[in-house]
Amino acid sequence: MNYEEALNFIHGRTKFKKHPNLNTIKLLLKKLNNPQDKINGIHIAGTNGKGSTLAFLRNIFQAEGLKVGSFTSPFLIRFNERISVNGMPISDKEIVDLVSIIQPIVKCMDEELEHGGPTEFEIVTAMMFLYFAKHPVDIVLVEVGLGGLLDSTNVFKPKVSVITTIGYDHMKILGNTLGEIANQKAGIIKNNVDCVIGKLPSEALEVIKNVCYEQKSNLFVPEQDYFISDCNEKSWKENFSFSNNLISIDNLSINMLGQYQIDNAACAIETYIRYKKNNYQSINYKIIREGLINTFWAGRFEKLNDKPTVVIDGAHNEPAVLELSKLLKHHFSNNEIYIVLAILSDKQYLKMINTLANINNVHLILTEFSGPENRKSAALNHILEAVNAKHPVKFVPKWKIAIMKSVNEMSNDDLLLITGSLYFISDVRKLFY
After folding, report:
1. Residue 99 exposure: Cα atoms within 13 Å on the Cβ side
2. pLDDT band at 234 (very low <50, low <70, confident <90, very high)
3. How far is CA 154 from the centre of its chain?
4. Taking burial as the number of CB atoms within 10 A of a residue's CB, which of 60, 249, 397, 408 is the most buried?
């Protein structure tokens, strides 16, 4: 088997479960001698902010000199990014080796199980657990794929559980109310395992509190158990202070813009502190400071060019776009902002468009891209009349031409933001790297 054949096997699997339970992934892992029981991990769920929080945590642990494994999704450039060590994707050979072990087991399960064998994500999750069982690291940061309760990653007992945010996304699968969605996210909370959360709506917070009470898990809540005070300075850095009942640190800096990134960084700090405290280890302020300032997460308000400034951002649902609009209003109120926007058809795209189109200095161009596999890009030309915009909204079907048209209209002092989908900005990013 070569690398391409290994990827074809993975991507050729069905994407969604026919079984609303974890039985298949547990059976697959059992046949692999339960590698999930051999890792020392932290589990991270949330509507948005999972990846950034994981990146902050990874860099804090790395600043301490630890070897850190990560499991993330989706990937931006190459599949290998999903399983990484100290931020470096595993090799093509390691992907092939993992698939070579798992493929024959999956083939047997296809024949044995009435509803069919493991899905693509179940296989990738098993690959991750198997990799870190065979190549031990000091700690593994595991990002939930979707939801939590029935997510394929929800098969190990972490040292800390993290829920970053809860908002409206994937409602067909997770539920139509914040309470229902929160109940799915709360599925990662384990008995007597600390749970750290980010800023949650009150309806979602009540659900998390109840589950933590049932599970006898200590819950750590922003503005109750840990505190942030941020600086309003406008630059390509965010500065803030952090405190809880154990430490207080002033003048922390991150290179990722947005109040939501300050929130993610604070969530990561609190998680790190709870992990260290539970392991009876001391907390080094210098390590936290160094880890934060060195954190970079591709596709999260990532600057690709100066003069004019070109930025990509993976905001792909309404909660993320709301946070993005706050960032634009705070940091770029004196610039003309050109936004090239493409969104998957299963998202709340009209809400997302109107949120951005209502900013006074935003000029919006809607476009389309080739969505991943069976997920289509929204046909946004049909909704132009429904958009409530400050400036005329244009539709250009080919995204490369949409970007060129925007650049031709801009001055060097303007901002070009390309956003709407992680899959879309993955295509865009390839033009610059």
Report:
1. 21
2. low
3. 16
4. 60
* Of 204, 137, 141, the residue nearest 175 (C-alpha): 204
Q: Which amino acid is at 173?
A: I
- Tens-digit pLDDT profile for residues 392-416: 899 999 999 999 999 999 999 999 9
Tokens 């990799």 locate to: 131
Beta strands in 331-379 (DSSP E): 337-341, 362-368
Higher pLDDT, 197 or 430: 197
Q: Measured at the alpha carbon of residue 82, what is the angle toward residues 77 and 86, in degrees to the nearest 5?
A: 100
Fold entry, domain 302-429: Protein-Tyrosine Phosphatase; Chain A (3.90.190)
What digits encode the pLDDT tens for the residues 294-317? 999 899 999 999 889 999 999 999
Q: Do domains 3-293 and 302-429 have the same CATH topology?
A: no
What beta strand segments (E) does 202-341 contain? 219-220, 226-230, 238-244, 248-254, 302-305, 309-313, 337-341
Concatenated DSSP letters of 107-122: HHHHHH-TT-S--HHH
In the numeric block, which tokens belong to residue 123? 């296989």
Q: Which residue has the tokens 């009209």?
A: 350
Angle at which helices 92-112 and 3-11 cross, to 10°: 40
Nearest residue to 73 via CA among 97, 44, 36, 105:
44
| Residue 91 DSSP SS3 | coil
Residue 213 to residue 208: CA distance in whole angstroms: 9
Q: Is the pLDDT of residue 232 over 80?
A: no
**Is there a cis peptide before residue 392, judged by omega within 30 degrees of 0?**
no
Task: Kindly state the tokens that stand for 327.
Answer: 């960032």
Tell how strand 309-313 and strand 302-305 pair up. Answer: antiparallel
Domain boundaries, the chain: 3-293, 302-429
List all residues 6 or more positions away from 155 whose beta carbon is below 8 Å from its beta carbon.
Answer: 22, 25, 26, 29, 36, 125, 129
Distance CA 111, CA 295 (A): 45
Is 44 within 8 Å of 113 (Cβ atoms)? no
Distance CA 229, CA 149 (A): 33
Which CATH number does the domain 3-293 belong to among 3.40.50.300, 3.40.1190.10, 3.40.190.10, 3.30.70.60? 3.40.1190.10
Above 80 in pLDDT, residue 75?
yes
Q: Residue 230 pLDDT > 80, yes or no?
A: no
pLDDT given for residue 214 in this prediction: 98
